[in-house]
Write a structure and sequence with these properties.
This protein is mainly β. It has no helices and 8 strands. The strands form 3 sheets. It has a 4-stranded antiparallel beta sheet with strand order 1-2-8-7, with no helix packed on it. The chain has a two-stranded antiparallel sheet with strand order 3-6. It is globular, with a radius of gyration of 15 Å. The mean pLDDT is about 85.
Length: about 130
Amino acid sequence: VLIVAKDTVKHEVPLCLGLGPRRNKARLVPCFEEWVPQTFSPKWETGAVILEETMLHTRWNIGPCSKDGTLERNTETAELIMTPGNFSAIGPRCMLTQADGIREGRCLDGENGMQDTPGGTSQIFPCAK
């Protein structure tokens, strides 16, 4: 999946969660290669994209997820909708792993550096088993 920054979906250059040119820091990067024409259909985010047109290190696998609550994709908006479960107010927790490139299979540590203030550094690490 591509994880697109919601406020950039309609921009000429939408931004996705991805990796920079070096190291393991996650950041917002262009979703598509520079040579891809900026002629997106009005609801492009709800359909499929051409794999070869997306930037390397912007594709993610989601799961497995914990069982308390649900996470579903809204087919109208492409947003993920979280429903809390009986035991967790935040809903299920899911692994996010890199889908391709030299860091394929590595996990996003979404809580690293975000304890005190939003916007902290997130890193990609080998997943704990």
